């Protein structure tokens, strides 16, 4: 388990709220999984910015990852290994949060996603 509790920033909550409305996806954790994976596919390291976890959206690691928690653990660890970042608990937690925030910004920043079909279309691009 990379992190016990995930708490989103109020900015991320607002962005995801709009995305929920556009896609019809009702669960925060599902959209957060999409955001994480979308960020991980980028070849760059997310900008190391402080994340203000000030919203009321909070979920456990198991709510976020579900039955795939080992897979998400492995994805973050492998990403760190590929970037030659030491896989300490602090680094894994830090880069998980940075990827999550960046992914949420990416998914909502372009205004490309207007429906569930647009979100699914991202998979086809890769």
From TrEMBL:
Pfam families for this protein = DndE (PF08870)
NCBIfam families reported for this sequence:
DNA_S_dndE
Q: Which domain of life is it from?
A: Bacteria
Q: Can you say what this protein is called? A: DNA sulfur modification protein DndE
This protein's species is: Ohessyouella blattaphilus
């Amino acid at each position: 388990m990379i992190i016990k509790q995930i708490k989103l920033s109020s900015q991320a909550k607002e962005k995801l709220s709009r995305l929920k409305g556009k896609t019809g996806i009702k669960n925060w954790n599902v959209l957060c999984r999409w955001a994480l994976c979308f960020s991980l596919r980028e070849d760059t390291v997310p900008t190391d910015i402080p994340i203000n976890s000030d919203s009321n959206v909070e979920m456990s690691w198991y709510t976020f990852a579900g039955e795939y928690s080992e897979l998400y653990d492995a994805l973050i660890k492998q990403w760190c290994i590929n970037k030659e970042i030491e896989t300490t608990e602090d680094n894994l937690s830090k880069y998980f949060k940075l990827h999550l925030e960046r992914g949420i910004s990416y998914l909502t920043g372009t205004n490309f996603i207007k429906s569930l079909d647009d979100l699914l279309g991202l998979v086809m691009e890769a």
